[in-house]
Amino acid sequence: MYHTCTADGTCICIPDCEDKECGSDGCGGLCAMCGCGEQCQSYLCTFIACEGRECGSDGCGGSCGSCGQQAACVVGSCPEPGVQCFDDNDVEWDGCTGSQVTEFLVNDNTSGNQELPDVIALSTGDYVIAYQDSEGDSGSYGIRLRWLPGDGSLASPSVLANTFQNASQTEPSIARLTNGSFVVVWQSSGQDGWMSGIYGQRYTSLGVKAGAEFQCNSYTDYAQENPTVSGLPSGGFTVLWESSGQDGSGKGIYAKDFDAEGSAVSPEHRINSYTIADQGMPAVTGLASGGHLATWGSFSQDNDGWGIFAQMFDETGQPAGLEFQANTTTYSYQSYPQATTLGTGGFVIVWQSQAQDGEGLGVVGQRFGAMGPTGSEFLLNQTTAMDQRNVDIAHRPGGGFVAVWESDSVDTEFDIVARLYDATGTPEGNEMVVNKYVTGDQTYPKVDVFEDGSFVVVWASSGQDGSNRGVYARRLSPTGELIWR
């Protein structure tokens, strides 16, 4: 910095920014501003966001490091699983203050198999997990629910959802509604007089059964199976399922819409327009526009095995436009789609795709806006060895999303992997392994997100509870750090 005198006799300050990345220019201004996570030190921008941290988010879209498979990131450090840690605050069940750094067992009965879990995060901070239990009722398989308070305790026992207990009730799907209540649906063998039908039960916001168990399908010939349910912005909900023989050629996708009181507001109706061969594996999500999106797998429609197709519906339940193809890559097969709203009128569909990542199954997605696809389809999994499959997805506050899937490239058996994305579809850091117990297979993950952006992942684990398969869960912070047990 120096001063000079102009021709009219005015003395002015000349800024001095030579060899300076940041800091004062000597004349009351700045040479430059440092970037995210940086601090100006001796006129140089020094990255300090990861000082004192060995893992977790750097707050700028990057990572301070990973703890690997056997440790969880807790407040920037990597304690070993099962040890106690303290973070100098009074918040209970945040991964420290004496709690255990590990996933936790959901099912209170460990005899037989507990599997195929689903989960909803409630606005209260509590969450509810549904799963099928091979010894869940007086028949065979039954549907059980466990309400888990937001304080991390496991005080409440599981309860039986299905009233009809003959034969098997399986394949649960659960959805929260706008008034704080929720609904769970499942397939039931023999209850509708034929092979299997679709049934459900509503619950109040306190977890008490609301009304009686109800039947969703009107057509009862052959099998109706693989149900899925989503809450709608109107306060009601919609249920989708596969139905054999009903559309005249193999399986088709059918649905029925309900209001918040559980009364049907539409007749049973077919979702797919293309009816050749099989349409199956349905998924559904409510949209910010007030309508909803249905997606499914369709065989031969994209001219090469299974492909992913979808149909939008308006707030009255009427089709909005024509059914459309979601996958661009059609080689071999694309199957088992899931979808979620992005909260801005858009949505994202994800699925598993054979050989697209160069080896086995990979997880692929496509974002959509009001006018159609946004950008190109993208690969979610960074690790491509072996198979990545059975993906699930949930939206995050601000328009982003979190995806979870099975991967058998982490070790010799399947594990649960998660990855966070922002509102532009950009990954926030690398994929991360969720489960810490790695013996046997960990499969069928599901995820949901709380209002504060934290999220919960549930899955089935082989042998971990001492008897075949059990259901396990973890809670993670908005940036993917462990905050629960």
Short recap of the structure:
This protein has 485 residues and is mainly β. It has strands at 2-5, 11-14, 38-41, 44-47, 104-105, 114-121, 127-133, 142-148, 159-160, 169-176, 182-189, 196-203, 209-215, 224-231, 237-244, 251-258, 269-270, 279-286, 292-299, 306-313, 324-325, 334-341, 347-354, 361-369, 372-379, 388-395, 401-407, 415-421, 432-433, 442-449, 455-462, 469-476, 482-484. The chain has one domain (104-484): Neuraminidase (6 Propeller).
Quickly count the helices. Answer: 0
Between the first and last Cα atoms, what is the distance in angstroms? 56 Å
State the share of residues found in helices, binned by percent: under 10%
Total domains = 1
Q: Whole-number radius of gyration?
A: 26 Å
Determine the structural class based on helices, strands and strand pairing.
mainly beta
Remind me, CATH topology? Neuraminidase
What is the CATH domain class?
Answer: Mainly Beta
Task: Give me the count of strands.
Answer: 33
**Morphology call:** globular
Strand content: 35-45%
Comma- or semicolon-separated keywords:
single chain; 485 residues; mainly beta; Neuraminidase; five-stranded antiparallel beta sheet; four-stranded antiparallel beta sheet; 33 strands; 43% strand
Description:
By secondary structure, the protein is mainly beta. The chain has one domain (104-484): Neuraminidase (6 Propeller). Helices cover 0% and strands 43% of the residues. The protein has strands spanning 2-5, 11-14, 38-41, 44-47, 104-105, 114-121, 127-133, 142-148, 159-160, 169-176, 182-189, 196-203, 209-215, 224-231, 237-244, 251-258, 269-270, 279-286, 292-299, 306-313, 324-325, 334-341, 347-354, 361-369, 372-379, 388-395, 401-407, 415-421, 432-433, 442-449, 455-462, 469-476, 482-484. The strands form nine sheets. Strands 5, 30, 31, 32 and 33 form a five-stranded antiparallel beta sheet that branches. The protein has a four-stranded antiparallel beta sheet with strand order 6-7-8-9, with no helix packed on it. The protein has a four-stranded antiparallel beta sheet with strand order 10-11-12-13, with no helix packed on it. It is globular and about 100 Å long. The relative contact order is 0.10. Mean pLDDT is 89; it is low at 87-95 and 97-101.
